[in-house]
Amino acid sequence: MSTLIVIDQPPYGTWAGREALDMAFSLAAFDQSVSLLFMGAGVNWLRAAQQTNGIEQKSVEKNLSAAPIFGVEAMYADTLACAQYGLTPEGMVAGVTMSPNSAELMHQHTHTAFAG
Question: What is the rounded radius of gyration, in angstroms, for the C-alpha atoms of the chain?
């Protein structure tokens, strides 16, 4: 049994993505197979070296770096969304795999949960 958690919300301005990340960490902490897929505006979570001083929030980059420690098996980025938001693999945090077919990726998991 495996769960794919889809984050399609931007990293700032809403708590939906952070709640989805917390859910992934909780599942992984209890030895559940869990992966993350970032789609739509959610790919902005994956930008390296985010500067958040102007919005007075902590960067989500540290949260994402903890994913392997908690046991999250994989992090995927929707290729089309990355192109739409001008995000390249070189500009992403480490450990992200590009997903050219997110629908197929969703079908490979037993459960799929969406943020928001």
Answer: 13
- Domain spans of the chain, in order of start: 2-114
Question: 10: phi > 0 → left, psi -120 to 50 → alpha, else beta; which?
Answer: beta
Q: Which option is the CATH number for 2-114: 3.40.190.10, 3.40.850.10, 1.20.1250.20, 3.40.1260.10?
A: 3.40.1260.10
pTM for the structure as a whole: 0.88
Q: How many CB atoms lie within 10 A of CB 55?
A: 9
pLDDT, tens only, 63-97: 788 888 889 999 999 999 999 999 999 999 888 99
In the numeric block, which tokens belong to residue 44? 């902005």
13 vs 90: CA distance, rounded Å? 25
- Tell me: the pLDDT tens digits for 38-57? 999 999 989 886 665 555 55
Residues contacting 29, CB < 8 A, separation 6+: 70, 71
Three-class SS of residue 112?
Answer: strand
